[in-house]
Amino acid sequence: MLHQWWNIDTYSHILLVPLIICWLVRLKLDELASVTPRPWLPGIALVGAALAVWSAGRALDINLVAHAGAVAALQAVVIAVLGVRVSLLLALPLAMGCFLVPFGDEIVPPLQFITADIAVALTHWSGVPAQINGIYIDTPAGLFIVAEACSGVKFLIAMVTLGVLVTFTRFASWRRRAVFLAACVVVPVLANGVRAWATIYVAQYV
Questions:
Q1: Per-residue pLDDT tens for 16-47?
Q2: Rounded to two decimals, what is the model's pTM?
Q3: What secondary structure letter does DSSP report for 14?
């Protein structure tokens, strides 16, 4: 996982997640000091289940599954060793651990199509003729392709990761949390479509 965090731009934001988790734990230090950790025996079953997922991912050579199992095992160890009461206090940092798993490649193809559709709609709106065929956009300035790197996936998953942090540390209302998280999904997708359109529009006139 560290190799992917360090070498793949899509996942470089994950390098901040361990620091965020440590900061979130630090915010709970006073509350944690008032609670006595008590191991929770059923947590061992959670550890076993997570390790089974990790093992299956390794056997099937599916990194996403293996990484998810590895992270879940760490989360389960915390629950098993420290107990339920402490784990409830650490619910947010434990949940943020899910963002240690490098994910997002799976949604690249649909994001490419969404970006292409937004770019073409804006291209027509701006008075530039264009035809679309999947992720290919044909204009008088040339043929444009919404490549994987232009899908906007890295903006989306980074925004969602930081959005969850902001949502649960700055908002108390669940309605506001839902609206903010929805914006964290919608805004990056729309913004990426605008960026793709701007490239086409500039190429048309410059």
A1: 999 999 999 999 999 999 999 999 999 999 99
A2: 0.83
A3: G
